[in-house]
Amino acid sequence: MRVLVLGGTRFVGRLLVEEALARGHVVTTFNRGRTDTDVEGVEVVRGDRESPDDLARLVEGHDWDAVVDTSGYVPAVVGDATRALSGRAGSYLFFSTVSVYPGWPQEGVSEDSPVYDCAPDVGGTAEDEANWSAAQYGTHKAGCERAVTEGFDGRALVLRPGVILGPYENVGRLTWWLTRIAAGGTVLVPGDPGRPIQPIDIRDLIGFTLDRLEAETAGTFNVAAPIGHATFGGMLDACVEVTGSDAHLVWVDDGFLLDLGVRQWTEIPLWRTHPGTWRIATDRAQASGLACRPIGDTVHDTWAWLSAGQGPAAYGRQAHHGLAPDKERQLLALWAERTEQAERRP
Ligand SMILES: NC(=O)c1ccc[n+]([C@@H]2O[C@H](COP(=O)([O-])OP(=O)(O)OC[C@H]3O[C@@H](n4cnc5c(N)ncnc54)[C@H](OP(=O)(O)O)[C@@H]3O)[C@@H](O)[C@H]2O)c1
To answer: What is the pLDDT of residues 231-279, one digit of tens each?
Structure first.
């Protein structure tokens, strides 16, 4: 297949390009050349998707079997791409997110859950996307989905991943945990080690994506590991094992951390107490062939990548992730006091 990737140099797009080339597809990438270098073997078109002139230059004399959009955040900008490409490409695959569901993470969601109501022509720029609120991000993505399904009616594939982990991760979630645990000592870990989690490995997401693209599937899919696929404790134990760390994990109650105002999801990456966080229904994707590797493999391979190279491409959201060392020490001291008092109580 001839595949155009709008993006292609950071995490999801980068892995997709690598795997598409490995499968023998011919790949064009379109990006500004700011985030990182392109994967060797692609045809590169430099340009800004927010510029109509650059879009016109991209499509001039070109056509593709499929477009993969990993960099769409603004509905009108995505709509411009669909209009420029509708006569030039067979299908349009849009990477959306489970954040399109206003009910998430308070409640579990399926593809039939309500999504934010956002018009497909809402404009603006994605320059500051890394600092958008979850609602702003989810609302915009819902508008982008509408732009794609209207522009490529019957030829659109919309994927809504939950948390994606693995090599090239750019957000600072598993990479933060690996780095913290590798540093060793007493490590504050949140909640219950048995808490079920369902992050998807990037390689499983990309395998599913390319299979669907090759099969010319249209429609909408949540993409996450099955509910209960892994546990928080299993993930962190794997971090200790792969880093060879002397880390001693101290499990601290959710309520204690919440009372002290510790920020869920970011200050302690991947920790979230809302009951729907890890209840994303993925039956539809599984019935279409989604297979997920054990979390231990994801942890192992992410550490191998992280410890061998330059680490993740720079991204604004990395700064929001991770517990400051001083704060971790303070919290651990307070927790030790609390547990000692509880033990002394008659
Ligand atoms: N990470 C997660 O856990 C998660 C979860 C759910 C959904 N998602 C979705 O998955 C996707 C993640 O994609 P990614 O960042 O990993 O994709 P990527 O394709 O690897 O990287 C983003 C690409 O977009 C390009 N780009 C950004 N702005 C551009 C512009 N104005 N014009 C042209 N190119 C532009 C960047 O290059 P230049 O900067 O050089 O232009 C870069 O190549 C997003 O759509 C996100 O919403 C992620």
So the answer is: 999 999 999 999 999 999 999 999 999 999 999 999 999 999 999 999 9
Instruction: Please report the pLDDT score of residue 334 as a whole number.
Output: 97
**76-113 pLDDT, tens per residue?**
999 999 999 999 999 999 999 999 999 999 999 999 99
What is the rounded distance in angstroms from the CA atom of residue 235 to the CA atom of residue 221? 25
Q: Is 70 a member of any domain? A: yes
Query: What's the CA gap between 115 and 139, in Å, rounded?
Result: 8
Q: What is the dihedral of CA 303, 233, 197, 134, to 10 degrees?
A: -70
Span from the CA of 147 to the centroid of ligand 1 (angstroms)? 18
Residue 310, pLDDT > 80, answer no
33 CB under 6 A from ligand 1? Answer: yes
Quick one: 101 and 182 in the same domain? no
Residue 24 Cα, ligand 1 centroid: separation in angstroms? 23
13 Cβ inside 6 Å of ligand 1: yes
* More reliable by pLDDT, 312 or 35: 35
* CA atoms of 161 and 267, how far apart (whole Å): 22
Residues 78 and 151 in one domain: yes
User: Which residue lies with its CA nearest to atom 22 of ligand 1?
Assistant: 7
HSE-CB for 260 with a 13 A CA cutoff: 17
Question: pTM for the complete prediction?
Answer: 0.97
Which of 161, 184, 208 finishes a domain?
161
Query: What token pair was written down for 296?
Result: 């231990």
